[in-house]
Please model this.
Amino acid sequence: SAEIIEIEFSRINIRDISRIAICATINEEDGKFIGFNRVEELYFRVMKKENDEEILRFYINEKSDVKNAVFIGELYIAENKWFFKALDGSNKDGLGGMCTIFGIATC
Model:
């Protein structure tokens, strides 16, 4: 299944927000831990909404049975343009672990 995130860059105040972290997590199934080894094809892509043109596709190589959160990368602004920086990293602490990495107290 696919998860879709829509970002309207024109509505972002770049004085307040200069980067957006892209992460993915897997929830437990029937109370049992699930790792990314159960995901057959994991990738992130950026598309133009108006014509469904794929601009970027980044494959994530996480196949660990003990990792349930992956840091895909970040969108950041430089010289008034948005860029994507791939950062293929993971942890075993789920969304809470990702929040800690970014200094967010609650998720």
User: Anything to note?
Assistant: Residues 94-101 form the longest helix (8 residues). The CA atoms of residues 17 and 35 lie 31 Å apart. The longest strand covers residues 81-91. Helices lie at 94-101.
